[in-house]
Amino acid sequence: MQTERRRHLSTAEERRETVLRTAIGTFASRGYFGTTTTEVAKAAGISQAYVYRLFPNKEALFAAVVEHCFVRVRESLEGGAAEAKGSSPEEVLSSMGNAYAHLISDNDLLLVQLHAQAAAVSVPAIRDAVRAGYARTVEYVRGASGGDDRQVQEFFAVGMLCHLVVSMEAQEVDAPWTRTLTAGIRHY
Length: 188
Prior knowledge:
This protein has helices at residues 12-34, 37-44, 48-54, 58-82, 89-103, 107-120, 124-145, 149-167, 176-182. By secondary structure, the chain is mainly α.
């Protein structure tokens, strides 16, 4: 008796998610301007034509990658808020900051965020995706923490400083300027 083997066909949405997860690593290595859709397709194991069936153009693909990264950031912040030891804004923001520090130890996610901010300067669709992602994230942080404008702004300012510290591996350099920048900054 033969066993029947069925090939599981991916739905377009499953393929889309696979392409997004794969594209994070591809775009992280060379950025928006240095990465081609051919490279994304190859990394995802699909044809470039299929990438274009899922996303109308490279801008739309990268904007979707940016959105995917913001979803991961939100999930991380939610986890941090849930793990807070107390309910004060300071405790919730601290816990969310710790969760975010863990998240950006994934260099691919960090690099995509940095590349997105750089591309946002000159590519309106990416600028719109970055703005929308930050708008949702700021409002989530404000609501989840109960923090005031100053506290929320400081949370994001420290997050940007974390990007800088992690991206240049400042903790690896023992110098007065790095001690100044890394003081009180969590990195993993």
